[in-house]
Amino acid sequence: xxxxESFAFLELGNDKDLFxxxxxxxxxxxxxxxxxxxxxxxxxxxINYRNRVLHTKKKKDxxxxxxxxxxxxxxxxxxxxxxxxxxxxxxxxxxxxKNGKQITAHVPRTGAINHxxxxxxxxxxxxxxxxxxxxxxxxxxxxxxxxxxxxSLEMIxxxxxxxxxx
Length: 166
Fold this sequence. Notes:
Elements: H1 16-21, H2 32-43, H3 47-54, H4 56-60, E1 68-80, E2 88-96, E3 102-106, E4 121-126, E5 143-148, E6 151-152, H5 153-158
Parallel strand pairs: 3-5
Antiparallel strand pairs: 1-2, 1-4, 2-3, 4-5, 5-6
């Protein structure tokens, strides 16, 4: 049902700014071009649209959108866990072959760090946290080591295969 408030915009006259304030936009037979232009301009203010069109996630990601990457171990290090957990997480600093970027990668499972040494060639993959971020209490660690010198880290750790010396 139409009320008096429904027709309140008629009292505004031709002042375009007042129309915008009241949420009344251009409409009519020849308004499509302006509506399309306004919509396009408004889309760029939305961060999700901007990131999708400019591919910022792929550009920012050290793996550049790929699931795994090859790298060289620079050093072993330990990372402290976030509160309320306590403990040291065994990690390695890796320089990626494809772009030279450095990342910190977690070496999963007990005793696995003993089988990784400096200058080893490793394959790293994303751990799979929310929106490509860290998991749980591991602050700033987004990647995990999968292979060492082209042999599965789990096979080396359990003693089913030996690490080749490259």
